[in-house]
């Protein structure tokens, strides 16, 4: 059940930089504090399908079907490469710049959700993470997994929001240098492309 060990494990996992963290940082740097909330919220809700799949046992099906896994995986790869292009393209949806327009709350949240939804490894992650912290009572296993998953999602939202607000606070200083903005866009694009390549090499 819920324990200090689970909280520490979940905290370490959530703090580790990944696609959701990179996305939240980029949006907050590019569009300010107002983008931090929907970015964090979208990335958090992108966890729901994988958590549900793990609880219902569907994750086992996903990882036993090579074709299904490959379809979801390469959809995720294509999306990450698209985000890389949007980061480096002049006026792209993720580019950082002083003249950068602001996206709607829904658009930011949906893009963040898709980052996690299109990562097939997340369902396997929950299958590996949650069982060691269950009480062992089959009758309460589903409720316990829902509780642990909910706590993991809450930590994700709070920490990602913190990352976003921190990035937004640094926004004005960074936007003062066109050279810094150019290299940041290139750097974030490289990170998304690298994460896409890493996902492409994953096996079921």
Short description:
The protein is mostly helical and 204 residues long.
User: What is the number of domains?
Assistant: 1
State the share of residues found in helices, binned by percent: over 70%
**Shape annotation:** globular
Q: Residue-averaged pLDDT, rounded?
A: 79
Low-confidence stretches: none
Could you explain how this protein is built, in words?
By secondary structure, the chain is mainly alpha-helical. Helix content is 77%, strand content 0%. The chain contains ten helices and no strands. It has helices at 4-15, 19-31, 33-45, 48-56, 58-64, 66-88, 105-117, 121-129, 141-175, 178-200. α3 (33-45) runs parallel beside α7, α4 (48-56) runs antiparallel to α9 and α6 (66-88) runs antiparallel to α10 (178-200). The chain is globular and about 60 Å long.
């Amino acid at each position: 059940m819920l324990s200090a060990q689970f909280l520490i494990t979940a905290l370490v996992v959530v703090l580790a930089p990944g696609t959701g963290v990179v996305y939240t940082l980029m949006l907050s740097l590019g569009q300010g504090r107002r983008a931090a909330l929907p970015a964090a919220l979208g990335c958090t809700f992108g966890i729901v399908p994988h958590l549900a799949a793990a609880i219902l046992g569907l994750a086992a099906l996903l990882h036993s079907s090579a074709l299904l896994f490959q379809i979801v995986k390469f959809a995720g790869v294509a999306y990450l490469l698209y985000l890389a292009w949007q980061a480096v393209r002049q006026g792209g949806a993720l580019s950082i710049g002083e003249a950068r327009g602001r996206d709607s709350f829904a658009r930011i949240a949906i893009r963040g959700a898709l980052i996690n939804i299109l990562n097939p490894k997340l369902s396997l992650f929950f299958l590996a993470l949650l069982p060691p912290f269950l009480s062992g009572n089959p009758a309460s296993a589903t409720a316990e997994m829902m509780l642990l998953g909910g706590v993991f999602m809450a930590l994700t939202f709070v920490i990602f929001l913190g990352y976003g607000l921190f990035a937004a606070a640094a926004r004005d200083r960074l936007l003062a240098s066109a050279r810094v903005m150019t290299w940041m866009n290139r750097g974030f694009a490289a990170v998304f492309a690298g994460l896409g390549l890493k996902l492409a090499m994953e096996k079921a």
